[in-house]
Amino acid sequence: MLAVVCLCQLMVVLDISVVNVALPSIRADLGFSDSGLQWVVNAYTLTFGGLLLLGGRLADLTGQRRAAIAGLGLFGLTSLLGGLAQNPGELIAARAAQGVSGAVLLPVSLTVITTTFAEGAARHRALAVWGAVAGAGSAVGVTLGGVLTEYLNWRWVLFVNVPIAAVAIPLAMACIGNLRTARRPRLDIAGAMLATAAMVVLVYGVVRTDTYAWGSARTLGTLGIAALLAVAFVLVERRVAAPLVRLGILRSRSLSVACVVIFLVACGQFGAFYFASLYLQGVLGYSPLRTGLAFVPFALGVVAGTIVAGRLMARVGPRPLLVCGLALGAVGMGWFGWVSPDGGFVADLLGPSLVTSVGLGLCMVTNTAAGTTGVARDEAGLASGLLNAARQCGGSIGLAVLVTVASTVTRHQTEPASLAAVTTGYDRAFLVAGVLIGVAALAAFTLLPSRPRPRAGGRDAADRLAGAEISA
What's the pLDDT band for 277 if we cut at 50, 70, 90? Predict the structure, then answer.
């Protein structure tokens, strides 16, 4: 069962990064503009992040097996359609549909773990494996994307999901139970639409800051609409009988802090992968295959970090490991900010890759454990959805912000078209990513409970264990 849910996790996480290394080939083949190219990534992460809350509730209400099979089937179909795309519009539409299927599939993997493994050492070990797959999958995706793009073409970075889905569906039918809540299945469609609309409008407003200044009427108006949609979402959740997000679950201090931390980390990490791929191919002239291989040390570092975290968390608690990992990640990401147009892999990338990856590996398991401990079984999907939604929405917003930063810095250089100017923009984006992860470290240090005690009473475990303790 653990192998099956890790396969589901791998498909979704891999698909976020596998496209990055193929972006230059996609731009040349389909005629994307520089500003439009980021929507190959954002179309996926937007629908993914906006619908993860609904996907998490589907796992609770319709059953984990049904949700997994539906997500796998739709993921395979939309991957096939994306690989067959003939113009930018078709590819972006297919990527958006992939995000919808991923929003159903990913929460199932974490929900199955939290409802199957008891809190403590057993769940920590399962989360260590799950976290290693999540972290390494991003880097492995870049490597796989390089191999497929080099020896086949960019379309195979999408086609590869079809046989994986074909294998995973029968395994899911055999291994995943169909546990669901006893409550009558009712879905908060209005809440899901408002949450998705708020995120889409927000990211669109941030993305367009490369054309319209932050203080312009257009940008402020777009961000204002996003804020109104977010307020409307909260009002709907307070009034409906079966809300998409029961707001009381956010009284869990550990869950709330974990969502903030993963949001900030994703803001920096997603953009860093995007710019690292463009730097290797566009500045250093690497082939897609060589670019993919350059990410292998990062993958190994993430795996090493998650293994260490899985073994030490029961002894020292989550906060020291989380803060240490985030601090390493911030330092490593800032180190990336010194790449040069005439640099090389060993001189410019190997050191920061190892430091950043080990740091992120240390914090993945501990942050997930903090966010899922003490959650009631019938709200495991909701907690999973909140954590994954924070990660994916952070990735979309972070990518949009960092693209704006890089393009603005490059545009103000003396020779904007030169490799030196482009690299200067990338450097600034890496430094901002490091600052975001550093803020996450500060938030974890100051806000995460060290050894919080569960409260007695309350209507369910999610309320009783607000600020739940991560225990051995």
Answer: confident
Q: Using alpha carbons only, what angle is made at residue 15 by residues 11 and 20, rounded to the nearest 5 degrees?
A: 155
User: Contact, 405 vs 432, CB < 8 A?
Assistant: yes
In our burial notation (b when 16+ CB lie closer than 10 A, e otherwise), range 350-366 reads eebbbbbbbbbbbbbbb
**Tens digit of each residue's pLDDT (9 = 90 or more) over 314-360:** 777 778 888 999 999 999 999 998 988 888 888 888 899 999 989 98
- Give the integer Cα–Cα distance in Å for 130 and 372: 13
96-135: b or e for each residue (b if 16 or more CB lie within 10 Å)? bbbbbbbbbbbbbbbbbbbbbbebeeebbbbbbbbbbbbb
Rounded to the nearest 10°, the torsion over CA 405, 409, 410, 413 is: 180
SS (H, E, C) 321-383: HHHHHHHHHHHHHHHHCCCCCCCCHHHHHHHHHHHHHHHHHHHHHHHHHHHHCCCCHHHHHHH
Type of residue at 31: G
DSSP 118: P
- What is the C-alpha separation between 173 and 171, in angstroms, rounded? 5
Neighbours of 443 (CB within 10 A): 18
**CA atoms lying within 13 Å on the CB side of residue 353:** 23
- Alpha carbon separation from 1 to 5, 7, 64, 131 (Å, rounded): 6, 10, 12, 16
pLDDT, one tens digit per residue, over 379-389 is 666 777 678 77
Question: Which amino acid is present at 66?
Answer: R
User: 224: which residues sit within 8 A by CB, 6+ positions away?
Assistant: none
- Give, as one character, the DSSP assignment of residue 85: -
Name the residue type at position 392. Answer: Q
- Rg of the chain, C-alpha, whole Å: 21
User: What are the residue boundaries of the structural domains of the chain, listed by start?
Assistant: 2-178+244-458, 188-243
Q: Are 264 and 443 in contact (CB under 8 A)?
A: yes
DSSP 8-state secondary structure symbol assigned to residue 452? -
The domain defined by 2-178+244-458 carries CATH number 1.20.1250.20: yes
What is the C-alpha separation between 379 and 117, in angstroms, rounded? 15
For residues 439 and 437, what is the distance between their CA atoms, to the nearest angstrom? 5
3 state DSSP class of 179: coil
